[in-house]
Amino acid sequence: MRTSATAIILACTLITACSPKIPAQSATEPADVVFVNGAVYTMDVNRSWATAVAVRDDKIVYVGFDDGVAALQGAETRVVDLDGKMLMPSFQDVHIHPMESGKQALTVNLAGMRTIKDYVAAVKAYADANPDEAWILGGGWSMDVFGPGARTSKKLLDAVVPDRPVFLTSSDGHTGWANSKALEAAGIDQDTQDPASGIVDRDAETGEIIGSLQEGAMELLTPYIPPSSPEFDQRGLKYSVDLLNSYGITAITDAWVLRPTLEAYRALDDRDELTLRVVASLWWERTLGLEQILDFKELRSEFTRGNVNAGTVKIMQDGVLENYTGALSEPYFVDGLPTGIPMVDPEFLKTAVTALDAEGFQVHFHAIGDAAITQCLDAVEAAIGANGNAHRRHHISHLQLIHPNDLPRFRELDVVANFQPLWAYADEYVTDLTIPFIGEERANWMYSIRSVINAGGMIAFGSDWFVSTANPFPQIETAVTRTDAEADDAPFMPHETIDLATALAAFTINSAYVNGIEDVSGSVSVGKLADLIVLDRNLFEIPAKEISETKVLLTLFGGKPVHGDLL
Ligand SMILES: [Zn+2]
Question: Ligand 1 mean position to 169 CA, how many Å?
């Protein structure tokens, strides 16, 4: 039963993806812009190539060859000679944190630095340059710089900022680094108990709190941070919109949204500055129950307008492996043999997902460990059992350790596997902070992208920026090579590589499916929105190790250039 339901929805997707939508007479009206002499990778169902595309207003009105497009060239038509360059549908990133990333880029931004000394120097420089800021905030530090367990020290920050609170989140957002003033402001001291969903790290000998807050323990502090102003939210978001457009991205799933984020999107959209189609994942508060669904319904109806769709709910089901909070079915190989932290009780998760599904919400899960992934799949199975399969396009992000038994369930349950492909190589997070603590057998399950496809599942890609770069090209290179896009390392689990066409689909038409907009975007097809990019090289004609160097020359959002100029 489930298999045939999957087949039906896939067929529907394919049919909508290729059906022309323009009225017949429009074929003879001149186009606004005509691209000729290109290598047009259409991403249509046949993955066919063309040389010419015509755009009128915000839509594609012709896809084919140079001689065929001549009929659409009027006196006012702009003709762009692509000179053999590659044109393709723009990217859609289905797990990203634009507003937080933009704000981080505008405050203490430690991303890319590789030593504690550099981190501390950057904090000092920012604090000195901003004497009026009450709290010094930012993030982007890398857990592996601090070694196993990622235990940061308040003393390092106290040495450079003794008089004001400092709070810096790790690059993956799962650990907070606080100085003494910040801990003091939040009333966190020796007597503070660990919350159920996190850990206040302490010195093993003295028991003193060290300034490292894992997962839910950050929530002991964050309420004391002065709220960011709507103006700063909008500045951060605008920074990100421009950056994402420059990477060829025109649609996203924002993976964590509260009301202020929705208000920032609304403000930009009202000023015509939101040149992104946004699916906003409303944050499931794990300390609350089903009553929050009422709030979600209100937010959905209040904010779904223009370029924003607030019809998704994000449920975070576990933490991460590096700090032993990712939920595993068998213990970590560390003292005390912990099995991680399921954030939502698995039985209640079934109830919650069933209720959300019944109310028409798509559920976007965060699941890293195999137990958390199983729990999310079980919850979707329960929802389908209760409600029937309404094809809500539920998806699970991260998927670091999928138990082999769960591989076929993505297809069976219509759950899209939302991978962050940049993570699928052997960096220090994998070799030093993960494999020693989970063992070789489970290490073989890591980021099993090809295995999900082989089992019939659909994959889609998201960057999880600020955790890692939002630039799709290094991510595509790693998906194709399972190596570091910036090094010549050996492939990590090379049997899990995928081909270029599959990787591009995961970032375009499949992500459009997750975003619920595959009938209007995600491929270069007549009738669809002209969300298009032109690249400086043809991805299919270069060595895989050069993919990450690709630059986007032009991004069109609904026919309008939002990065670069018409060539
Ligand atoms: Zn995320």
Answer: 13
Distance 339 CA to ligand 1 centre (A): 22
- pLDDT tens-digit readout, 471-516: 999 999 999 999 999 888 999 999 999 999 999 999 999 999 999 9
| Residue 361, preceding peptide bond in cis (omega within 30° of 0) | no
Nearest to 452 by CA among 427, 479, 470: 479
- Give the count of beta carbons closer than 10 Å to the beta carbon of residue 251: 27
- CA 503 / ligand 1 centre spacing (Å): 20
Query: How far, in Å, is the centroid of ligand 1 from the Cα of 156?
Result: 27
Sign (positive or negative) of CA dihedral 335, 337, 342, 348 = negative
Longest alpha-carbon distance in the chain: 80
Tens digit of each residue's pLDDT (9 = 90 or more) over 134-193: 999 999 998 889 877 668 999 999 999 999 999 999 988 889 999 999 999 999 999 999
Ligand 1 centre to CA of 244 (Å) is: 16
Q: Which amino acid is at 378?
A: D
C-alpha pair distances (Å), 249 with each of 22, 30, 94, 489: 25, 28, 11, 28
Cα(14)–Cα(546) distance, integer angstroms: 31
Helix (H), strand (E), coil (C) string for 232-265: HHHHHHHHHHHHHHHCCEEEEEEEEECHHHHHHH
Give the residues across from 499 on adjacent strands: none
* Orientation of helix 292-303 relative to helix 259-270, angle to 10°: 10
Q: How far is CA 145 from CA 101, 114, 148, 157, in A?
A: 20, 7, 9, 15
Task: Tell me which amino acid residue 53 is.
Answer: V
